[in-house]
Amino acid sequence: MTKSELIERVAERIDVPKNRAEAIVNAVFDSMKEALLADERIELRGFGSFSIRNYQARTGRNPRTGDTVEVPPKKSVHFKVGKELKDRVDTIN
Predict the structure, then answer these.
(1) Same domain, residue pair 13 and 32
(2) What's the 3-state SS for 19-86?
(3) φ/ψ (deg, to 5) at 28
(4) Same domain, 31 and 47
(5) How many domains does the structure of the chain reveal?
(6) Could you say which DSSP state residue 91 is in?
(7) pLDDT average per 10 residues of sequence, the chain (93 residues)
(8) Predicted structure pTM score
(9) 3-state secondary structure at position 92
(10) Which of 4, 8, 25, 32 is the most exposed place for a label (fewest CB within 10 A)?
(11) Burial of 32 (0-12, 13-18, 19+ CB in 10 A)
């Protein structure tokens, strides 16, 4: 599902014009971005949680040349699926 498809579904589900649904979806995503940038955890019960994971610097290897490479420390967004969603997806087949 793309963002525009999500906006269409929100507009249909709550019976509002698409531009209003777009504002709602953008407000939700902007709030989530701001929370993650502030290093806050986001928990959506029944869906999952988003958090920032810190990775330390390490020595890696260039697979093409075999040379060792220093990989700098970094942060990444981590998503952990909620139990309810996990169970529903598991029962699809």
Answers:
(1) yes
(2) HHHHHHHHHHHHHHHHHHHCCCCEEECCCEEEEEEEECCEEEECCCCCCEEEECCEEEEEEEECHHHH
(3) -65, -50
(4) no
(5) 2
(6) T
(7) 96 96 97 96 96 96 93 96 93 81
(8) 0.80
(9) coil
(10) 4
(11) middle
